[in-house]
Automatic annotation (TrEMBL):
Keywords for the protein's UniProt record, in alphabetical order: ATP-binding, Nucleotide-binding
Matching InterPro entries: ATPase_NBD, Hsp_70_fam
Lineage: Eukaryota, Fungi, Dikarya, Basidiomycota, Pucciniomycotina
Name of this chain's protein: Actin-like ATPase domain-containing protein
Pfam family, one: HSP70
Gene3D superfamilies on file: 3.30.420.40
GO molecular-function terms, A-Z: ATP binding; ATP-dependent protein folding chaperone
Top-rank lineage group of the source organism: Eukaryota
SUPFAM superfamilies, alphabetized: Actin-like ATPase domain
């Protein structure tokens, strides 16, 4: 039986852009440059002892020991000022005061929901702990969804999600989909499934990654609304709530855009009343380390950190590990944090221990295929993931023999490969060498990279959060590698939900002064190709790029205009503004289209042939609401007209937003981004 589904006009001397069909400004815009750093002085470090590890799912009563050491004094690290204009990017303070804030940590392996309201809950943050499929309390639920599809031509129907999907026994026509967040990894978006096909799940016929993410978020959100309403009643006003989603630091704008589309399709935010034209802005996407930093900042007195000191957040989760460096600014009574360097991240979370363990099993038992079928591999991996992975202590376990029961009883004894009477026996030294060290080494590399960006390659504290932070071996290796450079290395209480708690607190902070995080670092350079009036340098450096436009003016083609440079300090809610010009042949010719490029290079280039560029997206903006366009369209004789206008680029943590503004600074429209490389 089929299962039941679960519910003015400028001078014509301005020239046309070679790549976008738009007009370029006569002079390049102000480029926001990377910050300058000041001196930093740190005391000798102290010892760090890893906190207690609790096995299994993250349950509500987990309370690992908080480990702190004495903090030292640190000099201020300078932050360069940026030349950008203010922007109003949210609701007014009066509208936001007391609104419900819902944080969603959509993880590779586990997801959670937290919520709070300054008016109805006194600013406290609560979490959903009860989930379908279990009478126990869990702080997170498996990021897993199950479908039934009778045939490839039939629609795939959601039959379970979370704990129930994880426990589902697969039969013909059923699909259990996990790890689907990995589809939004930048490498997968660029190269497709082939580059990392071993990690990516099989999807039902006709389902795209965005569909699966939408389905899971729909189930999660529907249940979350029920639980929140039960907890605080109708005052919740979930239809007007701010929803904050967290994403890995390594994601680019394309992945964030897909995430936003999925969240909107899942109904996480919607119009709450007539005339609510900005309802989409109630959905905010921030990076996981930023959310974790917000949570950590509430515990700053516990860590004995003081304003002007710096700390690194290492968010070691199931799929990704993200690192970012922040500086405490302001007073403890009203603390803010500012990002100090570009974020870094990689796919080296605890999930990849499971995958490496599975590869080890396949290697050991390659001559015993009876133990390599899907149920056998699943049993081995489950035993490792739920037990041994959580307590592995590194070198101390080198001589320990770890035993894993075989799923099949046939061919169960061959000591030469580790099979002993129905068990696979693996020495701890082999687990460390082949499973743990390759993944842990990647985490240490990310942290080393973050420290290298600081002037003295030292900081005041290193805060390790995320589910992977429960690994004793990871904590040991971090202490061993950085104990002489960082005086405080700590794993706070409730480490596995630091990102989730921080996301909800981010929403609460919006009703104050724009948020706890006051500035971010641009992770990449955002660039436009353009034509500009030729200079003597252009004539000398690139004579082949010099041409005359229709007005007879010498211009240089293939010039680069940096909207913002990699590593630049950008204050939250501020616009990076640039002037443009468009020639319109008729009043109906009102759409401006251009290509936005990105670069991961630290160097700023002048010409297109100097360094690698990557096409990020095509952005389109409707100029018809602009008063100057309306005036020119109504007064200019036939033959066409020029319109100068200003576009503002906002880099808000994980997302980029393009806005059209008048000469008086009023926002009159938003750009539509069409990202390249999305199938």
């Amino acid at each position: 039986m089929k299962p039941r589904p679960i519910y003015g006009s400028p001078s014509p001397q301005l020239t046309q852009s070679a790549m976008s069909g738009s007009q370029a400004y006569p002079t390049p815009p102000t480029t926001v440059s990377p910050p300058a750093a000041g001196p930093d002085r740190l005391p000798d470090p102290s010892l760090f002892t890893p906190a207690v590890v609790s096995p299994g799912l993250a349950t509500a009563n987990i309370g690992p020991t908080i480990v702190t050491t004495m903090a030292g004094q640190a000099g201020a690290v300078g932050v360069a000022q940026e030349a950008v204009a203010d922007a109003d990017v949210g609701s007014s303070l009066g509208e936001m005061e007391g609104k419900l804030s819902v944080g969603i940590d959509f993880g590779t392996t586990f997801s959670g929901v937290a919520y709070g309201s300054s008016r109805h809950m006194g600013g406290t943050v609560r979490q959903i702990l009860n989930w379908p499929g279990s009478y126990e309390t869990f702080r997170k639920v498996p990021t897993c969804i199950a479908y039934y599809q009778a045939s490839p031509n039939d629609e795939a129907v959601v039959v379970a999600w979370g704990i129930e999907a994880k426990a589902l026994t697969l039969r013909e026509g059923f699909y259990k989909v996990e790890w689907f967040k990995l589809f939004l990894d930048p490498q997968v978006l660029r190269e497709g499934r082939l580059a990392t096909s071993a990690r990516l799940p099989e999807l039902p016929h006709g389902k795209q990654p965005i569909d699966v993410i939408t389905d899971f978020l729909s189930c999660l959100w529907k249940y979350a609304k029920e639980r929140i309403t039960e907890e605080i009643g109708s005052v919740a006003d979930l239809e007007a709530a701010d929803v904050i989603l967290t994403v890995p630091a390594a994601w680019d704008a394309a992945g964030c855009q897909i995430m936003r589309q999925a969240a909107l399709s899942a109904g996480l935010v919607q119009s709450a009343r007539g005339g609510d034209t900005k309802w989409r802005e109630r959905l905010r996407i921030i990076t996981e380390p930023e959310a974790a930093a917000i949570h950590a900042s509430t515990l700053s007195t516990l860590f004995k950190l003081k304003p002007s000191q710096t700390f690194i957040i290492c968010d070691a989760g199931g799929g990704t590990v993200d690192c970012a460096t922040y500086k405490l600014i302001g007073q403890l009574a009203q603390l803010e944090i500012a990002e100090m360097s570009t974020r870094s991240g990689a796919n080296c979370g605890s999930l990849f221990l499971d995958l490496r363990f599975e590869q080890l099993v396949k290697s050991l038992l390659r001559t015993h295929p009876v133990h390599l079928d899907a149920p056998s591999l699943l049993a081995f991996r489950h035993s490792f993931s739920e037990c041994d992975k959580l307590v592995f202590a590194g070198e101390a376990d080198d001589d320990t023999l770890f035993r894993f029961n075989c799923f099949n009883i046939e061919d169960s004894h061959d000591p030469t490969v580790g099979l002993e009477y129905g068990e696979l026996v693996v020495p701890g030294s082999v687990l460390r060498r082949d499973v743990f060290d390759p993944v842990v080494d990647q985490v240490l590399s990310l942290l080393t990279h973050q420290l290298s960006k600081l002037p003295t390659q030292r900081c005041d504290a290193l805060i390790v959060v995320g589910g992977f932070a429960s690994s004793p071996y990871l904590c040991q290796r971090i202490q061993r590698a950085f104990g002489d450079k960082v005086p405080i290395i700590v794993r706070p209480r409730d480490t596995d939900v630091a990102t989730l708690q921080g996301a909800a607190r981010y929403g609460l902070s919006l009703s104050k002064d724009g948020g706890t995080v006051s500035s971010v670092i641009s992770p990449r350079s955002y660039i436009m190709k353009c034509k500009l009036p030729a200079s003597d340098e252009d004539r000398y450096q690139r004579p082949g790029f010099i041409v005359r436009n229709d007005a007879g003016v010498e211009v240089c083609e293939n010039r680069l205009s940096y909207l913002v440079a990699k590593g630049a300090v950008v204050r939250k809610g501020q616009q990076l503004r640039s002037r443009y010009c468009k020639f319109s042949r008729a009043p109906t010719d009102c759409m401006f289209t251009a290509v936005l490029y990105v670069s991961d290079e630290d160097k700023v280039y002048r010409y297109t042939d100097e360094g690698p560029l990557e096409e990020l997206c095509r952005w389109t903006v409707d100029l018809s609401p602009l008063p100057s366009f309306q005036y020119n369209a109504s007064t200019t004789p036939s033959g066409g007209f020029y319109t100068e206008f200003t576009l503002g680029l906002l880099i808000d943590s994980a997302e980029i937003i393009g806005v059209l503004v008048t000469d008086e600074g009023e926002e009159v429209g938003r750009a539509t981004f069409e990202f390249f490389g999305q199938d």
